[in-house]
Amino acid sequence: MCCNGIIVLLALFIGFMAIIYLLYQTYSYIRCGCGKYGPFVSSYGKIKEDIIGEARRILQQSSAPLKVTDLGCGSGALLLPLAREFPQHEFIGYEWDIVPLTMGKIKAAGLANIKFVKGDYMKQNYSAMDLILCYVLKVTGEPLGKKLAQEIKPSCTVISEMFPLGHLEEVKQIESSIYGVPEKIFIYRKPRQEKKQPAAAKKKAEAKSGAKIADKVKAKSNTRSGMAKGKASGAKVKSLKSGRN
Ligand SMILES: C[S@@+](CC[C@H](N)C(=O)[O-])C[C@H]1O[C@@H](n2cnc3c(N)ncnc32)[C@H](O)[C@@H]1O
Predict the structure, then answer these.
(1) How far apart are CA 49 and CA 55, in angstroms?
(2) What is the number of structural domains in the chain?
(3) Which runs of consecutive H residues, i.e. helices, occur in the chain?
(4) I want to staple 185 with a disulfide (CB 3.0 to 4.6 A). Which of 4, 13, 163, 174 is the partner?
(5) Is the CB–ligand 1 distance for residue 130 below 6 Å?
(6) Closest residue (by CA) to atom 27 of ligand 1?
């Protein structure tokens, strides 16, 4: 009887937790624009270790303090181990879901170099960042890439888990996996832009190319008139010849 009671209590507890989980997933899905943004799924497995490894390589190389951010940081699966390992660098996670955000804040207690900020990562400015991590949906890759391409500095590195970002310059792809399932990591930097010509130099270049075109037209018309003259003189010679005959 006692044993049956425990089993019933356990089943009730599991059922209760499952309902809470389902309610949370529904809230998370709606909170993330019904598929527009990725819901809370923590990085895990080999891909998590590979991203941390890639970030570690960059952070180790700099003696100056760097600014690192995770866009949609969840509970800090990527940022927390890095913040513990590199107290000289500064870490900031943006997250709009209060549940993972609170979990992250609790786990970060005692660490002075990490901040969890509640907010929409599409509304922040990343011009001061040196390293950006993200794990977003495929559909977010296009608008987020466009925003980053405009804002980030040339020395900034962007690491994207699983999904490519648009508009940025791809540095490399890393083959990784999540529990045996092959997945990729995409590394980007700011796209190289053509150097802007100063207005005066642009005018000069335009005038020069205009003059060149005019010269070409002149040369062409000279050749044509030369050919016409040649033809005419040829005809004259012919008529003279025919006259002689
Ligand atoms: C796939 S999870 C990644 C979590 C974490 N980066 C990690 O690797 O463990 C994506 C997270 O981004 C958050 N998120 C999605 N869109 C967001 C937005 N526009 N602004 C802030 N957070 C967002 C979600 O709530 C979710 O926690």
Answers:
(1) 10
(2) 3
(3) 2-31, 45-61, 79-85, 98-107, 141-151, 199-244
(4) 174
(5) no
(6) 40
User: pLDDT by residue (tens digit) across 61-117?
Assistant: 999 999 999 999 999 999 999 999 999 999 999 999 999 999 999 999 999 999 999
What is the extent of the structural domain holding 184? 45-189
Q: Which atom of ligand 1 is nearest to the CA of 51?
A: 8
Task: Return the residue whose CA atom lies nearest to atom 9 of ligand 1.
Answer: 42
- Does residue 242 form part of some domain? no
Are residue 72 and residue 182 in the same domain, yes or no?
yes
Among protein residues, the one whose CA lies closest to atom 16 of ligand 1:
37
Ligand 1 centroid to Cα of residue 74, in Å, is: 5
CA of 96 to the centre of ligand 1 (A): 8
pTM, whole model, 2 decimals? 0.75
Residues 163 and 100 in one domain: yes
Residue 208 located in a structural domain:
yes
Inter-residue contact 78 to 51 (CB < 8 Å):
yes
CATH of the domain at 111: 3.40.50.150
Helices (H) and strands (E) in the chain, counts: 6, 7
